[in-house]
Amino acid sequence: MKRQLLVGRFGPDDLLEVPSEADEQTTYLQLVAGNRSLDHGIGDALTNLNKLGVFPSEIGIDLLLIAAHVHAADTRISRTEQSQDSWTREIRLVVPVSEPERWGGVVATLKKALDFLTGDRWIIGFRARPSRFAVIAQQSSLSLMAPPFDSVSLFSGGLDSLIGAIDLLETGETPLLVSHFGEGATSDAQSKLFSGLKKYYDKSLFERLRVGMVFEDGLVQGVGSENTTRGRSFLFFALGVFAGSGLGKRFTLRVPENGFIALNVPLDPLRLGSNSTRTTHPFYMARWNELLGELGIDGSIDNPYWDKTKGEMAAYCRNPELLKQLASDSLSCSSPTKGRWHGLGIEHCGYCLPCLIRRAALDTAWGKGSDGTTYTVSDLHARPLDTRESTGKQVRSFQYAIERLRANPQLAHLLIHKPGSLTDEIARLDHFADVYRRGLDEVASLIDGVKTKPS
Fold first, then answer.
1. Which of 54, 93, 224, 273 has the most crowded CB, counting CB atoms within 10 A?
2. Per-residue DSSP letters for 102-134?
């Protein structure tokens, strides 16, 4: 095991060598295709935004470059191979940016956010971009009309982001939706939902920024890839801020996520660390807002659904009929392609954690039998579910959490602190505890009477 050093380079003539320490393995990440075009989807993102009249700032571009380094390290450095505990990696980044001194002043906040998000130990350094890339951002022509967008909203292809988009459009706003895609299943869901929204809101000028960023296997020599992608939301948030920085006015990046999953309280003692994601946790969101303030970016990040369960989001959607029409095209499953092993297509498994929360939410909002989603395991009550297999593990974990909270309802006030600090949210603690209880209640209604046992 070694600490991994990832150093960004701008083009074939950028030959700067960064000294490595004795216990480090160095990988150079080429950020330019050919002589000038920014690679890994960054150049395409700039071009597509410019066509919409959106011109991101140099600092916005820097942020996306940092996110590319984070995403490359997170997905191409195996945890099992490069950590002593099969989880915690040591990663150092050296990123070329427009203003190294400015970025040097926010290193502490960046590290807090990344350490918390991925569970790794990050060291982040900066250097100046080569002179011919000192200026990348284009300026808006005075003859161009200002872009029509009054907000930016993440659009993942999931149910929550669909509800977030519908709610914005129903209130007359003109959002710029931001999507990151990797595997085909996610991309297909995003495209279907966007087409459905475009067809319904055909008078609105809302648009979408769609960015794919995937790094080749073997990027780090002799090291396997990683599939946990805990750092993906850093890229997603960075894309949103990158786009927002080009609106020419103060912006809010909306991150539509139900409060139950945003907190992501461990269901049982085994779900700490590697089994508990923190992609929209309040502590992480607060660090992002702290980062934007320190950088002088005139924007903020907000989860408008922090106090609602997924079922409540669906029930109170501002256009329930459209939601019912489009919901089956949204994608919630953690592994929608796993059915291929059984000759099936891309579909929801029905038994992973996000599938269970989705099923419970739509039963709560619309009544049992109204969810048109196809689930591989369509009937959770048909037979006992094996707790040693994936079909039963999450159900049993939910059963444990539900039984624990029913025995001691006040335990919710303690459990909400397990995933991470809530010191930024003292005034909301009672609300967090309540949304956690209500979220578990939704799942309890779904799995009531489901039998689980080890094979």
1. 54
2. HHHTTHHHHHHHHHHHHSSEEEEEEEEPPGGGS
